[in-house]
């Protein structure tokens, strides 16, 4: 197994999630792409595919990010521009499912009616953000939004991309994480991603943990679930990242990344067409 991937390694919540869902998909996405010969060549073109709910979430985030950028430049935000962005990008998906959506590429395209309803839901979420939620943020100091950041935890690099970090008049920071799904079984106090964001913010802005808050913000319902972390919780997160990073980097062979062939996972996996264990292949054979 080519060891170049270890030079590019960095822990992130999304990488950890993929490894837990399917180690083989993790291998293809972060390790196999660097393999010489046929395997690497087959993997690279598949990296551009996106699972539908990821793509939908990314579009909503991009629409919000574009307008926050305008705000930070001293320009007014535009609900119409945000909605136009969503409409244009969804239309591209409608016309090019096979080349943009992993489900369609794997033989499970979405019906136009489904995509139209999802487009409408996305527009509604954008509308909720700018008509209901925006007033809570617009007068705060914006420190960063949707920018890929990294920090070192011992010998390991950690990647984060917080949706928005603001500072109030009391010099307290709040990290906001937009959620495009429904608020079912919400646990902001135990959310790993928020813990990592708070850890990053404490280092990046030289801010005490006690002065950093975070929130999960559900755009479907305009609900916010605020939380904070104790120093002991942050230490636990540090240990978790350190231990998991060590496990990831200890891998020496593809066979250590066993596949998890479940149809609901494989349908939306970028690599189902090249994975020998794919449940999609077995489903289509039947």
Question: How do the strands and helices of this protein lay out in sequence?
Answer:
Elements: H1 4-7, H2 13-21, H3 23-30, H4 38-43, H5 52-72, H6 79-95, H7 97-100, H8 102-105, H9 112-133, E1 141-144, E2 149-153, E3 156-160, E4 164-167, E5 173-179, H10 192-204, E6 212-218, E7 223-227, H11 231-250, H12 263-266, H13 279-285
Parallel strand pairs: 5-6
Antiparallel strand pairs: 1-4, 2-3, 4-5, 6-7
Helix pairs in contact: 2-3, 5-6, 5-9, 6-9, 10-11
Describe what is shown at a glance:
By secondary structure, the chain is α+β, with helices and mostly antiparallel strands.
Indicate the structural class: alpha+beta
Largest sheet: 5 strands, mixed
Sequence of strands across the biggest β-sheet: 1-4-5-6-7
Pick out the low-confidence regions.
none
- Terminal CA distance reads 34 Å
Round the Cα radius of gyration to an integer and report it: 20 Å
Along the chain, the helix and strand elements come as HHHHHHHHHEEEEEHEEHHH
Strand content: 5-15%
- Could you state the oligomeric state of the chains shown? single chain
Could you report the average pLDDT, rounded to the nearest whole number? 95
Q: Give the strand tally.
A: 7
Shape: globular
Number of helical stretches of at least 4 residues:
13
Helical content, roughly? Answer: 40-55%
